[in-house]
Every structure is written in C-alpha cells, then in structure tokens.
Amino acid sequence: MLSTKTNEIVVVKTETSKIEGIDFNNLTFGRTFTDYMFYCDFENGEWQQPTVAPYQPMTIEPSARVFHYGQAVFEGMKAYKDDNEKVFLFRPKENFKRINKSAARLAMPEFPEDYFFNGLQTLLNLDSAWIKPGIGNSLYVRPFVIATEPAISASPAASYRFMIICSPAKAYYTEPVRVLFAEKYSRSADGGVGFAKAAGNYAAQFYPTSLAQKKGFQQIIWTDASTHDYLEEAGTMNIFFRINDKLVTAPNNDRILDGITRKSVIQLANDNNIDIEVRRVSVNEIKEASRNGSLKEIFGAGTAAVISPISAFEHSEEVFEIPTTKDSYASLFKTQLLNIQHNLTDDKHNWRYEIK
Amino acid sequence: MLSTKTNEIVVVKTETSKIEGIDFNNLTFGRTFTDYMFYCDFENGEWQQPTVAPYQPMTIEPSARVFHYGQAVFEGMKAYKDDNEKVFLFRPKENFKRINKSAARLAMPEFPEDYFFNGLQTLLNLDSAWIKPGIGNSLYVRPFVIATEPAISASPAASYRFMIICSPAKAYYTEPVRVLFAEKYSRSADGGVGFAKAAGNYAAQFYPTSLAQKKGFQQIIWTDASTHDYLEEAGTMNIFFRINDKLVTAPNNDRILDGITRKSVIQLANDNNIDIEVRRVSVNEIKEASRNGSLKEIFGAGTAAVISPISAFEHSEEVFEIPTTKDSYASLFKTQLLNIQHNLTDDKHNWRYEIK
Ligand SMILES: Cc1ncc(COP(=O)(O)O)c(C=O)c1O
Ligand SMILES: Cc1ncc(COP(=O)(O)O)c(C=O)c1O
C-alpha cells in the first residue's frame, strides 16, 4: 500500500558504501552514520520533492532560524533485523504522530504521513546492510525537522527541512545507572514545551547533568519545576518505580515526554498481570519506600536505552542504594520488548512494522 | 589597545559589495545581511583561527548537535553611526558577558574577550558602509554560537562555531503594541534556562504568540510558570509599568533575561529622579491600577525595539486600554537612549564603545 508511492522519492545512489570500515562491535552511540539520508524541504507553504541521497554535509545560511531561535524537533526510533533478514521498526506510527505534535507546539508545519513512511521504507531498504541481526544490535533512526529560512526576526520560519539520518547502535547504557533527583534545576515548565521533542529541551539539561556526573551520578530524574516534590522523567527515559510488587509511573502532562517505551511497558504490565498505577510519585514516597525496604526497583524506559535499571539515587545529599532484585520487572520487560522488536515472539498488539 | 591584536584575524576580502542593491528605507528586520561575517571554530578544546570572510552559506553535518539538542546561544546588539562617520556599539561588554553566561548554562565553552572585540572591530570596519547615520538607522549585530559536532548522543558537543552576522535595521516596532498576559503557556521554568539567550527559548514562544496574534495581540507578557500571577517579560523585551509617577519592573531571576536596555532604563530613571521600584509585579495590581486610572504607561525595553509603548493588555478575556500620556516616560527614555547611542549627547556612564 505504502510502497505504491515510493517511486515518487528521488533516489540519488552512491557507488561506494562506507560499511567496510565499520567495526560493528565497537560503536559509540550516534557517531557513525549510514550511506544514505532522507530529506524534504518545506517551501512556499508546501513540502517539496522528497529525496534519498548519500549521507553528506549540507549547505545552510548562518542566518537560518534554527541556529538563532531553536525551531527544531526530532524523533528517535530503532530498526531491527531478524534472522531471516526481515527489517522491523517498533511502533513508528507513534513517532510519526509525536513529531507532528512537537512541530505544532513549535509553530512548525506538520509532515505528511505517506512521505514519512515512504521515506523510511526507501531509506532502510538502501541501508539494510547496516542493520545487524541479533539482540543488542539495531539501527537508530533519527527523523528531525529544522527551520532553514535565512531571517533573524524572532518569529516562525517560512522554510524547513525534514530529514532522516541513521546510525548503527548497540545498547545505550549497559551498566545500571546512578541518578540524582533534581532539587534546583528543572527540565521544563507547566505550559512549556517539555512534552515535545524540541531540541532546546535537551541542551538545557546538559549543564545540570554535568554537575550530577561530577558527583558520580550519570543522570538526573527531573522533578516538577514548581515544588521539586514529584518525580517526572529522566533526560531520555520515562521512569518506573516498583514498590513491593506494584509498578508506579508519573502521568503524562505538558512537561513530560509521552514515551513510546513507557506506553509499551504499561501495556506489558497489564499483559503480565502486574499491578500498575499511573499517578504522581513524590520524592518522599520513594525515599520512604527505600527506607522501609518496599522499593524494589527503579528503571528507565526509552528507545535508546530500552530498559535501564537504576541502582541508586541521591536526594538532599543522602544516597539511597537499591538492592538488586531477583525476578526483576526491568529484565522481564526488557526481554519481552527485545523479543517483540527482533521478531522472536508473537506481536499481539501489532507493534512491529515491517520494512518491505 | 584592542587593535593591536586585530591582525591575528584572517580576513578574506570580497571584490563586490551587495550594498548597491539595498533600499535602506525599506528594510524588513533581519532579512538583509552585510558583506562580511566573523567566525571562529572551537576544536580540540580550543578556539581556533578567528576569520572574517564574505557572508555566505556554511557547510555543516546533518548530525551536528545544534540541530538535535539545541545547543545554541546568541546575542543582539546594535551599531550606530554619528554624523562624523564614527561608529559606536552600546554597552557591548554586557553582551559579551551575557553570551558567556548563556553558553555556560548550556554547557558550551566561553568565548575569549579579545576575540569577541577584535572580531567586532574588524567586521564593523569592513561593513561600515552598511551603517547609516541618523536616528532610526542602525546595524543589528548578531553574535551566536552553535554546536557543530556531528554526533547525536544527548550530551554536550566537543566542537562549536562562534559567528557574528550583521543586518541593517530600522526600528523594530513602530506602532504601539497590544499584548496578552500569559495565563496558560509559559516561557520558562524556575531552575530552567529563561535567563539565558538560549535559542530554544524563542521557538517555544512562537505558537502561543501566534494564538495571541490571532486574537489581535502582537506580543505576550509572560508570567511566572507556577502561578501566572506575576508579570515577567515579553518575548524580546523587559517590561516597565508606570503607576502614577512611579516606575515598576520585575526583578531578575532565573526565568528572566537580564536585559541591557532594562538596566539602562533603570539607570536613566535614577538620573532623571524618577522613582523606580524593582520588585514583583502582580497581574492583579496592574489590572487594579488600570481600573482606578493610576496605570499611566506600560512599555517594553530591548535592543531591537529600544523602547516600545504598549497600548492595551488582555487578561481573563478582559481588555484594558491604556490611554496615551503626555510627558510619557517611554518617549523620554527612548530619546535619551537614542541620543546616547547616536553620539548626540553626553555619555556619563560610558555606555558607548567606539569602533576604531
Ligand atoms: C525526555 C524524554 N523522555 C522519555 C523518552 C523516552 O521516549 P521513547 O520511549 O518514545 O523513546 C525520551 C526519548 O525518546 C526523551 O527524550
Ligand atoms: C527574552 C528577552 N528579554 C529581554 C530582552 C531585552 O534585552 P536587551 O535589552 O539586552 O536587548 C531580550 C532581547 O534581547 C530578550 O530576548
């Protein structure tokens, strides 16, 4: 169905692949790019010719609005290959919807659904050799949109570029991470853009995160900006708390990214008859649960890290270690997700999307 | 003193100026760029060769971190020419300090002071013909820094480009503006990056501002994100309220840009023996003052607009018109500022900085 429009994409082929030089067992996340990229410009109120071309530097004016006013949104998804060389994405329609939600919040034009999926199909077919089978391997797929109009008045641009670039990936965090609960800095405001995958949300976290890292914590769990009393999410992951046998995670609001992995974990919890509550989670509740031994696990959920166990947190200069649990939910969900993603198990919710 | 290092800048000259084609009486803000630009790359932990070259498009990787994580900060200043062809900037040291404050908050390297001022000197000398004398004319000068490293992991970049581009300008807002007081959306959070001139802060305002514009208001006055009870600043201006003969403006905090025009207005108020209070200003106080007739003026203060009178505001679906005042403070400060900027009057605070 989607493939009928694929031939509308202009494809510029390269004779030489860079793949021979790549050590797939030694990849640093996000530094190696595949042979091809997808792009499509928005001009005169319309998306123009979608194109797949060799990955290469681009030419842009120094006055392009993206450099000055941060009109930029992105998505992150992964492609997986099974042992029969079939390639799958995981719930890409959710990424498609979310990038347009992000774009709308930043006064950017929405991207057409058929362009998005035809672009992915064409690109991933050409770059198929970059997707290695086997759990732990994937191709990270990065759609993004930037404001290209050369004009530095503080208002929305009239021209944009939508692109997809791809980078082969291994699992993002391999070790359990130690986190700081935010007490001073914040990630986003009520009525702000925290729910959007807006570029500026990420740069804003780098400095506070570097302070946390100096103290020996890899990540920050952000709290609500007004009181810092409620736990929200991490820099690139939503967060789950297991208290005895019950899971708890914060509800979505306009500060939190509506994560696709989070959504999937909530569904899997239901499928596994694990009790799950979506409600505000206070710092005090978690400290208390840690003290009385009912806090069994904390883990992050996100495309890059899949499921990332958290081994300790700090709040008010006090460090709380989380003992490892047998039969951890984190590893249960991780296994179930990876099995679905790699086509090793049934897909009863239709989460896999095949690249044909 | 500064000029002794100027010869360290590599200058690439152009044979042809674009200036002949420019109608200086019909300029749209931020769309026309001068003949030259300044740039300097940060690589291997150091700022490299500073260069002035013809303004031109640049080449950058699609994976450059600025496109994905919004690591980008900027400044805005203006150059003025007097009738003797002397060129001045207004308090550029404040812009220099502020861009480094912004950079630090976004985990970006600070730029050296001598590079900054030598760059400005060299660039503005080459582009001097673009600065027209006479009040209302100026050259808008835009220093900015972007993360150029081609890597899409969510962490600070290792390479950056610092640039200065220039655009000839007329006054930004000519008509008094009508504003909305924010009730739902917010510009920034406590503990966030609102005090920095971070690119992402601006894109976040475009959509709420477009909603305001549909209702007939050109700008939004942002309120504190937690309660929306206190008035903070506009998108590119700090805000002053005149109640009877007293001026009031919000204090700086981590949500508000520490404006150079604001600082100068506070000084001028003192110089003119105008009573000024720097304190929180509530929406209710201003509505009440409007109702009882003590609200005489509201005006914005910022580099682009200089001083911009506000003629009406809306809150809770109620519109408050502000009658025009004889002997307005807005026009007093505007005249005094422009006279200092254009070297038409004494400069007792040493705000002018001459380009030699
Ligand atoms: C701020 C933030 N929260 C959560 C997530 C997890 O979302 P998802 O599961 O859709 O990848 C991400 C990353 O994508 C993120 O950037
Ligand atoms: C958010 C914001 N507030 C206030 C201002 C005014 O600051 P300045 O007077 O330094 O130009 C600006 C513009 O520069 C701004 O972007």
UniProtKB/TrEMBL annotation, chains A, B:
<dbReference type="GO" id="GO:0009097">
    <property type="term" value="P:isoleucine biosynthetic process"/>
</dbReference>
<dbReference type="InterPro" id="IPR018300">
    <property type="entry name" value="Aminotrans_IV_CS"/>
</dbReference>
<dbReference type="GO" id="GO:0052655">
    <property type="term" value="F:L-valine-2-oxoglutarate transaminase activity"/>
</dbReference>
<keyword id="KW-0808">Transferase</keyword>
<comment type="function">
    <text>Acts on leucine, isoleucine and valine.</text>
</comment>
<dbReference type="GO" id="GO:0052656">
    <property type="term" value="F:L-isoleucine-2-oxoglutarate transaminase activity"/>
</dbReference>
<dbReference type="Pfam" id="PF01063">
    <property type="entry name" value="Aminotran_4"/>
</dbReference>
<dbReference type="GO" id="GO:0009099">
    <property type="term" value="P:L-valine biosynthetic process"/>
</dbReference>
<keyword id="KW-0100">Branched-chain amino acid biosynthesis</keyword>
<keyword id="KW-0663">Pyridoxal phosphate</keyword>
<comment type="pathway">
    <text>Amino-acid biosynthesis; L-isoleucine biosynthesis; L-isoleucine from 2-oxobutanoate: step 4/4.</text>
</comment>
<dbReference type="GO" id="GO:0009098">
    <property type="term" value="P:L-leucine biosynthetic process"/>
</dbReference>
<dbReference type="InterPro" id="IPR036038">
    <property type="entry name" value="Aminotransferase-like"/>
</dbReference>
<dbReference type="InterPro" id="IPR043131">
    <property type="entry name" value="BCAT-like_N"/>
</dbReference>
<dbReference type="InterPro" id="IPR005786">
    <property type="entry name" value="B_amino_transII"/>
</dbReference>
<dbReference type="InterPro" id="IPR043132">
    <property type="entry name" value="BCAT-like_C"/>
</dbReference>
<comment type="pathway">
    <text>Amino-acid biosynthesis; L-valine biosynthesis; L-valine from pyruvate: step 4/4.</text>
</comment>
<keyword id="KW-0028">Amino-acid biosynthesis</keyword>
<feature type="modified residue" description="N6-(pyridoxal phosphate)lysine">
    <location>
        <position position="197"/>
    </location>
</feature>
<keyword id="KW-0032">Aminotransferase</keyword>
<dbReference type="GO" id="GO:0052654">
    <property type="term" value="F:L-leucine-2-oxoglutarate transaminase activity"/>
</dbReference>
<comment type="similarity">
    <text>Belongs to the class-IV pyridoxal-phosphate-dependent aminotransferase family.</text>
</comment>
<dbReference type="InterPro" id="IPR001544">
    <property type="entry name" value="Aminotrans_IV"/>
</dbReference>
<protein>
    <recommendedName>
        <fullName>Branched-chain-amino-acid aminotransferase</fullName>
        <ecNumber>2.6.1.42</ecNumber>
    </recommendedName>
</protein>
<dbReference type="InterPro" id="IPR033939">
    <property type="entry name" value="BCAT_family"/>
</dbReference>
